[in-house]
Amino acid sequence: MPLTMSHAVGPVEPQVRELTLGGLLTWAAETAPDRLALISGVPDPSARREWTYAELYSASVRTAHALLKRFEPGERVAVWAPNIPEWIMMEFGAALAGLVLVTVNPGFRQHEAEHVLRNSRAAGVVVSPAFRGNQMLAIVEEVQPRCPELREVIRFDEWSTFLESGADSPAPLPTVDPGDPAMIQYTSGTTGLPKGALLHHRGVVNNSAHTLDLMEVGDGCVWLTTMPMFHAGGCLLCVVGAVSRRGTQVLVESFDPALVLELIETYRCDGMSTVPTMLISMLEHPNFDSTDLSSLTHLSSGASTVPAPLVTTFQERLGAAFTILFGQTECSPMATMTTRPTPSPTRPAPSGVRCRTPR
């Protein structure tokens, strides 16, 4: 008698959307073109740039055309930079161009960066010159001869020139299927060098959207993105999640508690995803009690043990719904999460609380 595989049927709500990353941004731009999509949350308020959904879509399409001047659909292109708005344009531009985006940690040193570029068979890399003393451009130039498939190096500090290179492209953008690969994200695992996880469009779109859905984040939210973009928590849960809500995303280049508190008050942010150390540094900052945080109604945290007193403190002092997230890169990224009612102060972990798995 032949063996058969049994399988569990999960919940049918929220419904799975047959969308690509590019299709998600297109939908948001078509349905809310004038809504503010992105704010660069830099420390100097006068230097903060803004894009509506129509503008972000246009910039992403220009990025796609510039990429297609250099790469064929299906090729891998790495992005090595901190949280800057152009990172988001690369994310959606690569998706619209049918390219596979390879995310690289800006903290990587030479041997780690070389491993990712070689292992992913990246045909190109878009890189910031430096970040926190890490000379990333110089590292790329050093390792390029040892990466036989790496033929293009594009600089984020020459972004305007890069975009102009695709301005005269008459070719239509390629057709991309929701089942096509979207990203290779590198995860350290437990031993050795980082290992690449291949993620497809359908997975990253639905996982991020459903996570915010289960958190009960509403359409048009103002989402503060403090998680690093090279990580699935930043470029997927935060970026894709916010776009799935046609929300305004306030992007923080590098976490600083004083800046984060100011941005929440200034832009009336109603949601953010964090790691516990971020929340602790906010709580211990002298501006915490004097900052108006009343808009913050949705908080989530994960990536390490979330202490029960931390959950209690933020729920009691802000009245915000607190969600604990559990994930791994291969899951795009959430595997399971707590749902309302929120965890009790003595039991913030999944044991004894209701959990839900984003599809």
Task: Describe this structure as you would to a colleague.
- It is a single chain.
- The protein is an alpha/beta fold and 359 residues long.
- It folds into two domains: 52-200, Rossmann fold (3-Layer(aba) Sandwich), CATH 3.40.50; 202-356, Rossmann fold.
- Helices cover 34% and strands 19% of the residues.
- The protein has eleven helices and 15 strands.
- Helix 8 links the parallel strand 9 (222-225) and strand 10.
- Helix 1 (21-31) runs antiparallel to helix 2 (53-68), helix 1 packs across helix 3 (85-96) and helix 2 (53-68) crosses helix 3.
- The longest helix is centred in the first third of the chain and has 16 residues, at 53-68.
- The radius of gyration is 20 Å and the shape is globular.
Short structural description:
By secondary structure, the protein is of the alpha/beta class. It is about 35% helix and about 20% strand.
Secondary-structure blueprint:
Layout lengths: L20 H11 L4 E5 L9 E3 H16 L7 E5 L4 H12 L3 E5 L5 H10 L4 E4 L8 H8 L8 E4 L3 H6 L16 E7 L7 E6 H14 L7 E4 L6 H13 L3 E4 L5 H11 L3 E4 L1 H9 L13 E4 L6 H11 L2 E7 L6 E5 L16 E2 L3
Parallel strand pairs: 1-10, 3-4, 3-5, 4-7, 5-6, 9-10, 9-11, 11-12, 12-13
Antiparallel strand pairs: 1-2, 7-8, 13-14, 14-15
Helix pairs in contact: 1-2, 1-3, 2-3, 7-8
